[in-house]
Amino acid sequence: MYKQRGVLVVFSGPSGCGKGTVLKRVMEKNENIFLSVSATTRAPRNEDTDGVTYHFITQEQFQKLIAEDGMLEYAEYCGNYYGTPRKAVLDRLEAGYDVVLEIEVQGALQVKKKFPEAVMIFLLPPSIEELARRLTDRRTEDDGTIRKRMKTAISEMQQAPQYDYMLINDSIEETAQRFAAIISAERSKASRMKERIGEVLYDA
Ligand code: 5GP
User: pTM here?
Assistant: First the structure.
């Protein structure tokens, strides 16, 4: 049976625009997706679980991982470091899983440089007002942090045209469907089907 290598998906969007909720919905309907667990130096929030939402590590551990070339990409964001552990991602892709990296823009552009076949999806909030409301309603950060995240959000959204796809998160259900449709279409790309056509033609 032909086993296709998985699709590497980079998923970005400003803090509070609903990336996590959309992904949860996509993954409920698709068992072939693996969500990469990042490492970070930021402090855990209430909803976080170590090893599930993030690997929470110290600055020293983070620097050690970089030195060992253990990070596929990494970036500093609002005063903390975030990075994607390399091995888990490459192993899952090899095993045929579609791997999603939920990461910010600087890291996303590093991935695209290293893996030009990566699919870049940017999630936009329906409006700036809605984004501010969601960040404030979440009540997980103080006012200073929220202001900093709003400023970062605006400069991130200006980079959205560098992505392959943009989704506007006005309905979680529809956004999740469009996300899944992108992966499905990518899997059928001729450039990803070269080995398959070789197998089909083998007996011709
Ligand atoms: P938060 O602190 O809200 O969990 O995440 C802040 C930002 O860091 C989000 O935009 C999130 O997508 C991004 N992020 C999470 N993990 C990584 C990572 O491994 N690498 C990079 N570059 N960004 C990440």
Answer: 0.92
